[in-house]
Amino acid sequence: MLRLDTPERENWQDLAKEFGFKFHTMHGQPYWDESAYYQFTLKQIERDIEDPTLELHQMCLDVVDRVIRDEALMRRFCIPKEHWELVRTSWRQKEPSLYSRFDFAYNGKGKAKLYENNADTPTSLYETGFWQWLWLENKVDCGDIVRHADQYNSLQEKLVNRFYDLSQSRLGETLHFTCCKDTDEDRGTVQYLEDCANEAGIETKFVYVEDIGHGEGDVLTDLDSQVITWMFKLYPWEFMFREEYGALLSKCDAKWIEPAWKSVLSNKALLPMLWKLFPNHPNLLPSYFEEDLKHSGLKRYVRKPIFAREGCNVSIHIDGNTTYKSGGPYGEEGFIYQGYHPLPKFGSHYTLIGSWLVNDQPAGISIREDSEEITQDLSRYLPHVIVG
After folding, report:
1. Calculated CA dihedral for residues 266, 38, 301, 308, nearest 10 degrees
2. pTM of the full structure
3. CA 108: distance to chain centroid?
């Protein structure tokens, strides 16, 4: 695994405008960065990323099956009691999922270590499935990258195929898409997924989360008063449960992408459960709930809120000293404690690998880097290639 400098494409900002990539720069800071790329061998991808991704995913599904059967664990995962049956039913009825993303620490040697599972609302789909592939094609065409270079990236193809599969049980039905207002990144991600669904032959419609209404007969509606029966939401389940319409979620007949059982997998409480069920697994880091920390022997650990997102409210503790702490709105729900395993550093850049799954199958990687140890929402996105 190498980090290699490379010239930027002269016209990439024009291409971004042409293809609707509006969030390549956010808050005046570059998000997409093509001044360098990461190079892997095929062996590194297949052995160290792809195989563990598939194995860890099956382990995570085992955790879901245990949690939904245990009231104490449902409480531990901070799932509101009034929504337990919704979560259980979605699992028992095998309501289908679309995608998820593991975040790994990996430097090209040894075992990739799991940081967390982004199983409900992972972002960076567009830049992974489409934009970095376009970058590779352009760079090969101009001779900057060798012609036999490849990319670990079947994400877009798998998304379209998965949407087609999902549509076969809902023929002729409109799939609504939703995200929050005032975020170009979320809107761009949802638009990309909507395009994938359209390519699969699905009729789609968009409504902002803030505009979802309550119709007669315990139904959810869009701004045209059309009843929502099938919806993709780029909005976390823990937020959905606590919305004004949260009480309707168990009553209305809507089906969701992602399904309610994903509220277990997107939860940081998953990490100590994995460690308990699969202790010393080579791709896991020791992880504990608060009451178990004192007996764990951990002296170097990272404290993460159960509902943490984008690196918020995370702190690093080394031998009794807090060496890093980020702000944010999370923490009231409680924390988990994960063994400290720093991200690899390439020059001055801390590098995180996101490993994607679609329909339970590995589908590609995304790479983020930052000057800080904790990857956050404005961490830069860099492309990758496979050579050798």
Report:
1. -30
2. 0.96
3. 22
